Amino acid sequence: MTTSTYSGFPKLRAVDSRPVLKDGRLFIALRDPLRLTDKTILIPQSIAPILALCDGTRDARGLNASLAVRLGLNIPIDEIKQLLTTLDEALLLDNDRSTEAQDQARHEFLDAPYREPSLAGQSYPADPDELNSFLQGYLDTVEVKSITEEGCGLVSPHIDYDRGGSVYAQVWGRAVEFVRSADLAVIFGTDHFSQDDRLTLTRQHYATPFGVLPTARGVVDALAKTVGEEESYSGELRHRGEHSIELAATWLHHIRGGQPCELVPILCGTFDRFFGSEQNPENDPTIDQLLCTLRSATTGHQVIVVAAADLSHVGPAFGGRPLDLVGRARLQSADEELMEFMCAGDAQGFFEAIRHVDDANNVCGAVPIYLTIRLLSPVQGERIAYDRCPADEQGTSLVSICGVLFK
Questions:
Q1: How confident is the model at residue 1 (pLDDT cuts 50, 70, 90)?
Q2: Number of domains in the chain
Q3: More confident residue, 1 or 217
Q4: Which residues contact 19 (CB under 8 A, 6 or more apart)?
Q5: Which of 1, 11, 149, 367 sits 20 to 30 Å CA-CA off 374?
Q6: What's the number of CA atoms in the CB half-sphere (13 Å) around residue 90?
Q7: pTM of the full structure
Q8: What gap in Å lies between CA 104 and CA 115, rounded to an integer?
C-alpha cells in the first residue's frame, strides 16, 4: 500500500467481496460491481473488520478506537489510513470521486448503442459460432422432455454456465417452441448489489454475441411513469455489470436461433423489509401498480416471462456453517418446498416459506420468482430440473438452482 495521510469519514460502497487464499494467507478480495475500476483489492483478513465500520461516521482515529473497544484489535492509525487511501484510489468509497466516476460511466453506458455482454469471452465464448456450439453442447448432453408448445414463462438459473449448464439446457430446451413464438420477453433478474427493494429499469438495449435484443422502450417508459423516474433509474448503471439478465438473455437468443425479440429487462432488489416485518408484498401498492402496468403495456404481444433466479446460497462461502450430509438433506427439503409453491403458482406461499425461516438459506432469486408468478397468475408450473452446485473448494458451500416451466 502507498503511504497516506487520508482524512475523512469513509463510507464503503456496495462491493463484491469474497474470501481468497493466497500463498497460504487468507484475504478478502474486493471488486467493484459497477466496474468503475477493474482493480481487485486484496485485504488481509486480519484488518478486514475495518470494512464493516466504514459507514461514514468515523474517521481513521474513530476506526482505530472502535476496533480496539469492540474487537480488541490494535491496528495503527497509519495502517488504517493506508487502507483507506487504497480503497479511495480504487473508487470503492462513497464520496465525490466515486460519484463523479459513476456519473461519467452512466453517461457512457447510455450513449453506447447497446449494453455490451459483460461475461462474453470470460464465462462463455464471445464468438457467435463458438457460443452456438458451446450452448448446443449442453443441449446435446441432457435428456430434454418432450418439447411443449404451450407456455408463458420459466425460471432459469443465473449461475455460471459451467456449473448450471445442464439445468439451463433442460428448461430452455423444453421451452423452445413457445420461446421462439414470443415477440417480447420480460426478464426479472436478481440485482445482487441493490441495497433496497427497488426494481431498476433501463432503456438501454441488451446485446449478446448473437446480436442485439432491443429493449421495448415503450413498455419501460410506462413502468417508469408508474413507479417514478428516480425510483426506476437511480441504480441503472448496475445493469452494465449485473450478470443475471445477461445469462438468461443469451440462452433466450440461442434458443431463438439468433432471431431477436424485444426485451423488458428488470433488475430486482431485495425483500428484506418484508422478511423482517409483518408487511406483505401481496399488499404492496407499488408492486401491484407495476404488475398492472406491465400487463397493460404488453397487451397484444406474445410474451414470455423469465425469472433469472438461483435458489439457496449456504455454507461458509456465504457466512454460514459447513454443510454436512444432514445439512444437504435439509437444504434439498427446503428447496423442494419452494418448488412446490412455484409449481402451484402460489406466490404468497413461496414468499411465506422463505419468511418463515427468515431467509436462512439466502434465496437469491426470491424477488424475480415471486414477481414472475404474480405477473402470470393464475398459472401452474412444471418442475424440469434441480441441482446443487459447489461454491467452495471444500464442497461445504452450495448454490442450489432449478428450472421450472410455467403454463
A1: very low
A2: 2
A3: 217
A4: 26, 27, 28, 29, 45, 317
A5: 149
A6: 24
A7: 0.92
A8: 15
Which of 93, 114, 120 minimizes the C-alpha distance to 240?
114
DSSP string, 181-231: H-SEEEEEEE-TT-SSS-EE---S-EEETTEEE-B-HHHHHHHHHHH-HHH
* Cell 482505530 -> residue: 64
Among 62, 79, 104, which residue terminates a domain? 104
9 lies in a domain?
no
Say yes or no: 271 and 147 in one domain. Answer: yes
Fill in the DSSP letter of residue 159.
S
48-62, 79-93, 139-153: segment of lowest average pLDDT: 139-153
Give Cβ neighbours of residue 194 (< 8 Å, ≥ 6 apart). Answer: 14, 200, 235, 238, 267, 268, 269, 270
> By C-alpha distance, which of 401, 173, 370 is closest to 269?
370
Q: In whole angstroms, give the CA distance from residue 360 to residue 300.
A: 41
Checking phi first, is residue 307 left (phi over 0); if not, alpha (psi -120 to 50) or beta?
A: beta
Residues 188 and 279 in one domain: yes
Euclidean distance between CA atoms 129 and 323, whole angstroms: 40
SS3 letters for 88-110?
HHCCCECCHHHHHHHHHHHHHHH
- Under 8 Å between Cβ of 129 and 122: no
